[in-house]
Amino acid sequence: MLRLQNLEKRYRTGDLALKGVDLEVPDGQIMALIGPSGAGKSTLIRCTNRLVEPTGGKVWLNDMELTGLGAGALRRARRSMGMIFQEYALVERLSVMENVLSGRLGYVGFWRSYFRRFPQSDIDEAFRLLGRVGLDHMVDKRADELSGGQRQRVGICRALAQNPELLLVDEPTASLDPKTSRQIMRLICELCKERKLSAIVNIHDVMLAQMFAERIVGLKLGEIVYDGPPDGLTAEVLTEIYGEEDWEATIRKVDDEDGEAEESLAESLHDDHRAVVLDRNLIIGN
Could you tell me the pTM of the whole model? Predict the structure, then answer.
């Protein structure tokens, strides 16, 4: 379980980005973090793994207080927190496989990582992850040859290669078209459920948040103003988070697309099962 206690962040400009946030994310829960630009969503995620240092408060992951760790212990603790970035954060000149294996850098020694000598078990897992997201045929392609959706899938694999307990996902669909955005969100949710992972997904798209998250937390000016189920995002609540708008149209659109999303998820799971059966047959045949 992730637990934030009275988390604060004040920048050097004097701006208070987080104002005493208290939040718990149980094991296996997928939580969407929504709110207008400047609400503190990215800051909250980055304070969680201390890519941004909190000004006050505490962060706990299970029984470990992350805010009290020194540099070495923090590096080890970050193995348990996979990060998926908005701009992918891939090394463009490296191959897909090399980018995925970079998720294991916290587990191998300096010289082994420098010469890219990863254990065979890590390589096998990287192949399995890439197969799971449909990129096993692109292992040798350079990252700069991929589309946006393909890059995000590589980023997902890299995060999962860490074998984390928690996924921190920062705007995974911001640079993607609507169809690819839904595919990426569906994939993240499926993988979290398969691995019983908790996830905090910072996302601007309210409709995607309602379609895929189990719980939604709304931030405004560094404070939580909503914490509840997706169907609790009424027009009044959305107005409180974002301001005046015709939110009824957004809510109706979500309702209309729920059935379509469930049907697409069922088809995806069926295809994944068929791929696993074929893969097992190939292995047995070898």
Answer: 0.83
- Which residues are CB-contacts of 232 (< 8 A; sequence separation ≥ 6)? 216, 226
Q: Provide the 8-state DSSP code for 95.
A: B
- Amino acid, single-letter form, for residue 260: E
CA-to-CA dists, residue 237 to 31, 33, 68, 204, 232, angstroms: 17, 14, 36, 15, 8
* Host H or E run for residue 2: strand 2-10
Q: How many CB atoms lie within 10 A of CB 14?
A: 6
State the sign of the Cα–Cα–Cα–Cα dihedral 96, 98, 99, 103: positive
pLDDT mean for each 10 residues of the chain (286 residues): 96 92 96 95 95 95 93 92 89 93 82 73 94 94 94 95 94 90 94 94 94 96 96 92 79 60 51 43 37
Backbone φ and ψ for 27, nearest 5 degrees, come out as -60, 135
* Cβ pair 231, 62 in contact under 8 A: no
Whether the CB-CB separation of 168 and 61 falls below 8 Å is answered with no
Domains defined for the chain, CATH in brackets: 2-285 (3.40.50.300)
Q: Spell out the SS3 assignment of 35-54.
A: CCCCCCHHHHHHHHCCCCCC
